[in-house]
Amino acid sequence: MSTKRRLSRIFAPDGKAVIVALDHGLIDGPCEGFEEPAAVIRQVVAGGADAILTSYGIARRFEDELSGVGLILRGDGAATNLGTPSDGSASTLFFTVEDALRVGADALVVTALPGSDKEESTLTNLARMTREAHAWGMPVLGEMVPGGFDSGPEMRGTEAVAIAARLGAELGADFIKAPYTENYEQVTKNTWAPVVILGGSKGTERDTLSNIADAIAAGAAGVAIGRNVFQCEDPRAMTSAIVAVVHGGATADEAVELLPSA
Description:
The chain has 262 residues and is of the alpha/beta class. The chain has 13 helices and ten strands. Strand 6, helix 7 (119-134) and strand 7 (140-144) form a beta-alpha-beta unit.
């Protein structure tokens, strides 16, 4: 199967994608809202998600629940919440392209941390995985997090995010996952690969939907978010609200009306 064909299982015909990230168990274990993976998967699939980003173990165990959506396999891993502070945001390749093919994945995701003390090793991981994946026609999602996940505001500005996103494209990633920031058109217009925004820490549903709407207006190709879906009161409804913004052109105010608390 070609890279283009696999990408068509993640991105809808309008060129956009609602990806729900369900890989948090790799670091947090049974975190709040994600204690029962099967139930969460069923809810977000019912809500209209295009794809789910998750771990190898979940991809194998919950094959039936995942059968109706695109599948993005997490190829790397980092220190867990049981690790020592010195572990930082180090990232190691855990799985191969063959592993991804074995579970029927449509893409692999690897995190890179430009601007951090792990810059060289994580960029090397992304380049290596991209080279190997493309030999099999497997797309790669480059999760580009400038400075690392605990970086300060200077690494969340427009310039830093734009550089990080472009680096991912330069290394061959087929699509990019990057933080949302102001003036996001500077990120999207200078990166030829489609850019989807990551969610980060749990915020309010209205703020999340507002950021998504602003990102889409600035040229983003969708979202790849987790906690801001599965930690909501109704993950299915929140997924539907995000779909309404990404694919339906709804405003944040219109999308909020789809939530039970509206």
